[in-house]
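Q: My labmate handed me this sequence with no annotations at all. I'd like to see what the chain might look like in three dimensions before we decide whether it's worth expressing. Could you predict it?
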Amino acid sequence: MSVLLADSALAARQVIVSGRLVEGITGRPLPVQKLDLLAGQGASRMALEARAIRKPGGWYALHLVPGHRWPGFSDMPDVTLELAVTLPDRPPVVTDLTLPAAALRVESRVLQVGTTPVTVSRVAGAPFRMDLELPPHPVSLALTVIRDHDPGAPVEGVGVTVLGAPAAVTDAAGKALIADMPVLETVVVALQHDGGMTHFPVRPDFTRRLNTVTLSLGAA
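A: Here is what I predict for the chain of 220 residues:
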């Protein structure tokens, strides 16, 4: 892989990579701080000069910066594009896309601007789609178990289990805490009581680190 100085005629805002960066389950945009684009071919690896544009809903685009350096790729092997995403509350995340070298070569193309044909240089196969979806952070569940929908009748000693999380037992106030529940759209809270088991589906709110819920058992 050699390095070429990008032609001044390189299409100024040609998008190289675009896509969506979101949180799974919620669909919320990831709070991206920085986007870096790199290319690797064989043992060579280098940063690509690209400017980021971010839009609502987690959408982004990285476009060319004319006058900056652009690699001249060999015919073989394939090229791997890497999108490095810097986030405030997670370790850096990298997603990649493998492409034939020909897709990243600079080619001349004639564009019609009004009635005037204009020859510009473009990256042949761009734009390329690179999405990233990360799971939301785990949340905890603070629950209160009562009897027959009566807030004044908490139930002590109820075993509380959620598959994939540490078990708990309700205290004298009927309260228990399940820390760091599994990251699922719906979890099932199992209450062991009165010699039996009752199951309650709960949909975590991933916008809140601590969820609260009151669950009612039947009359004793």
